[in-house]
Amino acid sequence: MSAPILSIENLSVGFRGQGGGTVEAVRGVSLTVAPGEAVGLVGESGSGKSMTMLAVMRLLPSTARITGGRVVFDGTDLAGCDEAHMRGLRGREIAMVFQDPQSSLNPALTIGRQITDVVRAHRAVGLREAREIAADALQRVGIRDAAARLNAYPHEFSGGMRQRALIAMAIACRPRLLIADEPTTALDVTVQAQIVDLIAELRRDLGIAVVFISHNLQLVSEIVDRIVVMYGGKVVEDGPVEAVERTPRHPYTGLLQACVPRLTGPAGPLVTIEGAPPRLGRMPTGCPFSPRCPQAEPRCSEEMPVLGATDDHRVACWRPQ
Amino acid sequence: MSPPILSFRDVTKSYPLGSGLDRLLGRGGRFIALDGVSLDIARGDVVGVVGESGSGKSTLASIAVGLFPPTSGEVTIDGHPLSALRRDRRGPLRRRIQMVFQDSSSALNPRKTVRRCLAETLALRGVPRAQQEAEAMDLLGLVGLGSEIAPRLPHELSGGQRQRVGLARALAMRPDILIADEPVSALDVSLQAQVINLLSRLTKELGLTLLFISHDLALVRTLCTRIIVMQKGRIVEQGPCREVLENPADPYTRMLIAAVPKGLAGRRTPGPAPAAAPPPIQPMHAIAADAHSTSSR
């Protein structure tokens, strides 16, 4: 296997708490992404999945900061590098697409202007050439009549088209890593399927590595190679998609899989995960999932299991399935 | 057979298009949100209304609950036209339809505690002040919340808790019909499952008629007995839920079904061949006839 393009090593992210203390939202996360690989980062709200990737982009909210670990992208530690270096990377080498396309676009500027701004920030091209690149990117994400659409404003686009435009903006400079944070949550199922198709297609045609953040295991399994499950700021399971889907080893992964309603099989009550995810600053000492885990034993709430690395399917559990 | 509890007869809702001048000159045209919809919903039916944005499913809900009147056509509750109910606002019929909204944070008043929100709703129903507190606590219990959340404000609650409070507020009016407009689409999958199971239990326990508006067919399959598929303001297909999902007649229904995420079975990139074929679809005749299906057209 080739060297990873992104390697997150023991990363911790903390929020300033009341009274000067720090509350950790990401607690020692390690994961790697190989060139061209698609990784699904799965977990509930508050699991730390978005914070981990925002730390990679160095776009954390002002109250949060990286408190430990490294983020190695292409040989450079992004956790310690200066803002100027990050500016050169963002949009050029690493791009991110967010959940709400409406608030990610500037309503006062045309779609074309917003894409060409990104292109011209990173490449020494003139306006005309930048517009050609932008039109090309829009066409690639499946927007018909792309050259004319450059003059449209965000409100003239539907939700699905706005998300396509954002993806066009993200891929205009041919980054090597695309981070998609719940890119389809605000969209209809049919549009969701189209966006997932599009991401799979871009990956195949451009060889872009993808980190797909979602709470829906069923959805990410359709396009990723590997699944990383997070809970309570930690990685609890990490493995090839087939292995994680067929034989989930962490009880949380199994439950997460079971609570998604399906179109086949029995239609009885849904499996639920009782209780609620742990709140920031109130993490259990042991496994963060132990208070909700049907298989928990006394040891689970006392000692945090380490992410076992016997093969390429890692699990952090005292009683793996 | 008892008459339908909720009935739409040829209901149309349209909005004028174009500028004010266009409208004055009658050349603006109209956008048709709902196009001659007729349907009957029997007491105790749990009906899923599915379709994409713009299919008219939310318009259908808003008209049913009386948020705005239809442009033409008639909506009746137990044979009473809804237009008459709106004038008779305090009348007992008006409260028979309640609604749960998609975005629980904007559906609750941010300055009112859960206790006050429920007490005010109970007061509308004429519950004496002395009993409001006890009833509010009962309602919280009904939706699986503890009394400790009563003094909290909406922003102090999680999304799942807020949605339950919205549900408790709707139930405070003791409705016959509950309309839930995408109630779980903003929630995590694990919370989604909790709220869906709760809705399922409550409809059975309280004998509610539920209109569940969603674009997620897998959710509708879990919860509903009947399904109505809408596209561009029209009903393109309806019937017993399992029958329609297993044997869709309309191409649009088939497209919606194809769009549901299917995990490994729906892999987009060529990977290793799946070890096990997906479970075969149950043949239609194997499913018991649906007791709730009505003879709607």
Question: Could you write a compact summary of the structure shown?
Answer:
The complex is a heterodimer of chains A (321) and B (297). Chain A is an alpha/beta fold.
Describe, in plain words, how this protein is organized in 3D.
The complex is a heterodimer of chains A (321) and B (297). Chain A is of the alpha/beta class and 321 residues long. Chain A has helices spanning 49-57, 83-89, 101-104, 111-122, 127-140, 146-149, 159-171, 189-206, 217-221, 241-246, 251-258, 298-302; strands at residues 6-16, 22-33, 38-42, 64-73, 76-77, 94-97, 177-181, 209-214, 226-231, 234-240, 314-315. In chain A, the strands form 2 sheets. Chain A has a 7-stranded mixed β-sheet with strand order 6-7-8-3-9-10-11, sandwiched between helices. Chain A has a 4-stranded antiparallel β-sheet with strand order 2-1-4-5. In chain A, helix 4 crosses helix 5 and helix 5 (127-140) crosses helix 7 (159-171). Chain A is globular. The mean pLDDT of chain A is 91. Chain B has one domain: Rossmann fold (3-Layer(aba) Sandwich). Helices cover 34% and strands 22% of the residues of chain B. Chain B is globular, with a radius of gyration of 21 Å. Classes of the chains: A alpha/beta (321), B alpha/beta (297). Chain A binds chain B through residues 38, 44-45, 158-159, 188-193, 196-197, 200, 203-204, 215-219, 221-223, 225, 241-242, 245-246, 255-256, 259-265, 267, 269-273, 276, and chain B through 52-53, 158-160, 188-194, 196-197, 200, 215-219, 221-222, 242, 245, 255-264, 266-269, 271-272, 275, 278-279, 281.
